[in-house]
């Protein structure tokens, strides 16, 4: 039995060896020689295979499908990149618009601040001028006679008269009060007392 199995295995082994020596090794040798020849002659074996495959309908269709798919992928990527670029350009435009708006707002605020400062300066100057003019008025009432000053003051509004009377010196005030009739003198005395208690009459 053992001899029969050995005899049956020998033909199988010899057939496999025959396949290797007669078919596989020559093919591998031929491929090696072909690659060597193509390399020496400067031909690109892959480009040649590609040209050959184009002549064979089935292989050419496989290459065409691969190329078309890769081209579709590249076009999709290109469209995606273009959309991203447009989005970023739109965002940049929006930020530039916001920046211009902020700069305009800052410029307007600066102009408004400058206008207010100028207005404050003008009002301050007017106030100082009015203060000097009021001091001149007070000095005038201190220099004229009490007999002339008393009737002028009684013709004024009480607020204006009290303001002047509260700023003249005490001697002038006493002299003017003496030249007023008792009713006016009593009224101005009460008004002056109330104004001093509030502390809001003096222009100094």
TrEMBL record:
<dbReference type="InterPro" id="IPR006668">
    <property type="entry name" value="Mg_transptr_MgtE_intracell_dom"/>
</dbReference>
<dbReference type="Pfam" id="PF03448">
    <property type="entry name" value="MgtE_N"/>
</dbReference>
<dbReference type="InterPro" id="IPR038076">
    <property type="entry name" value="MgtE_N_sf"/>
</dbReference>
<feature type="domain" description="Magnesium transporter MgtE intracellular">
    <location>
        <begin position="136"/>
        <end position="194"/>
    </location>
</feature>
<protein>
    <recommendedName>
        <fullName>Magnesium transporter MgtE intracellular domain-containing protein</fullName>
    </recommendedName>
</protein>
């Amino acid at each position: 039995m053992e001899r029969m199995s050995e005899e049956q295995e020998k033909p199988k082994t010899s057939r496999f060896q025959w396949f290797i020596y007669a078919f596989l090794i020559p093919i591998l040798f031929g491929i090696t020689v072909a690659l060597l020849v193509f390399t020496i002659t400067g031909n690109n074996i892959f480009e040649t295979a590609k040209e050959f495959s184009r002549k064979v309908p089935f292989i050419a269709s496989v290459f065409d499908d691969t190329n078309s798919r890769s081209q579709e992928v590249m076009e999709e990527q290109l469209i995606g990149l273009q959309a991203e670029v447009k989005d970023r350009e739109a965002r940049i435009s929006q930020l530039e618009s916001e920046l211009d708006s902020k700069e305009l707002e800052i410029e307007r605020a600066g102009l408004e601040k400058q206008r207010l400062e100028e207005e404050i300066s003008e009002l301050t100057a007017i106030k100082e001028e009015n203060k000097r003019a009021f001091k001149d008025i007070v000095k005038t009432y201190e220099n004229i006679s009490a007999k002339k000053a008393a009737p002028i003051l009684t013709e004024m509004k009480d607020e204006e008269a009290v303001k002047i009377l509260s700023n003249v010196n005490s001697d002038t005030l006493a002299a003017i009060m003496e030249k007023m009739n008792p009713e006016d003198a009593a009224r101005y005395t009460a008004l002056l007392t109330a104004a001093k208690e509030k502390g809001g009459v003096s222009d100094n």
